[in-house]
C-alpha cells in the first residue's frame, strides 16, 4: 500500500500544476495588447556646416582696390604735375648750357617743388600698387580659403619663406592660385 499512497500524491499534485499552466498556453494575448518596440527612425543626417562669412574679406578687398586705385591715380597726377612744372622752367627761369641747367632763384624753387612732387608721386604710386596687390591677394587667396570649410590641401596653401644668399636676400612667396 505504500506504493498506492505515493501514486495518489503524485496524481493530486500533477493536476494542479497542469491547471496552472493551462491558461497561459490556451489563450495567447490579443495582438492589440502586445507591446512591440516602436520602429527606429533613420539617423538624422549630419548638420551641414554653416556657410562661411566672407563679408569682411569682401569689404577689405573692395577697400584695398579702391584705396589702391585712388593712390595710383594720385601718384600719376603728382608725377604729371612735377613733369609740367619742371618743363615750364625751361627757357624761362632755367637755361640748358650743355653742361647742365642753370636756373635763377625762381627756377630753383620751381625745380625743387617739381622734385618733391615727383618723389611724393612715386611713393604714393608705389603704395597704390601695394594696395592693389593686397586686394588681388585677398580675392585670389584669402576669400577662397575662408569659403572652403576644413583645412586646405598643402598644395593650395600659400607659403612665405625668407631666403638669403651671398649677394642678397628676400622673401619667397609661393602657392597655387
Number of helical stretches of at least 4 residues: 3
Distance between the termini: 109 Å
**Gyration radius, in Å:** 47 Å
Total number of strands: 4
- Overall geometry comes to elongated
Strand content: 5-15%
Mind explaining what this structure looks like?
The protein is mainly α. The protein has a domain at 55-157. 58% of the residues lie in helices and 11% in strands. The chain is built from three helices and four strands; from the N terminus they run H-H-E-E-H-E-E. It has helices at residues 2-26, 55-88, 105-147, and strands at residues 94-96, 101-103, 159-165, 168-174. It has a two-stranded antiparallel ribbon with strand order 1-2. Strands 3-4 form a two-stranded antiparallel sheet. Helix 2 (55-88) runs antiparallel to helix 3 (105-147). The longest helix has 43 residues, at 105-147. The protein is elongated. The chain starts with a helix and ends with a strand. Mean pLDDT is 79; it is low at 3-16.
